[in-house]
Amino acid sequence: MKKNLPPKNIIGLGLITTFLFFLSIIIHTLGHVLIMIHEGYTFDENNKIILMLLGSKTGLVSNNDMTMASLRSAIIGPLVNLSLSSLFSNLSKIFEEKSIANIILDQVGILNFFVGLINLIPVGNFDGKLILKSTIFYFSKDKDYTIELINVLRRFLIIFSIIIGFFLI
Question: Is the residue at 155 inside a domain?
Fold first, then answer.
């Protein structure tokens, strides 16, 4: 980025990047919602979508969260982000290198790429956990075994992360 940008341009750059990234998160959530509706999920009595800092709550309900329908609805989120990453990164190439539009689109592309990758981690409320849980259930057809295996894998991931953390210090 040019070092002599006035402060108002830097603030504008940040605001536009933030807006486009927030729009990406809305598109990510809408991807989930559209697939879930297509798969037969229904809205609960609140009929609303709540966006939170790390995720969203859609108000869509199903009898079982370990079906192929839930796998398809979970995998669409990271795919949307990775697609948006490609779109924004390619759009940035239309503009002159180091121009404001190039910088904004490139940054939003990078943010979407990392959100897509981080969303694949099988912990917490990330899509990766539901992808893994649905895949294990699809092959085992045993809900108790699936939950037990997810808990074992989660413990392994936590211990592995702690060990990696010690080596990075």
Answer: no
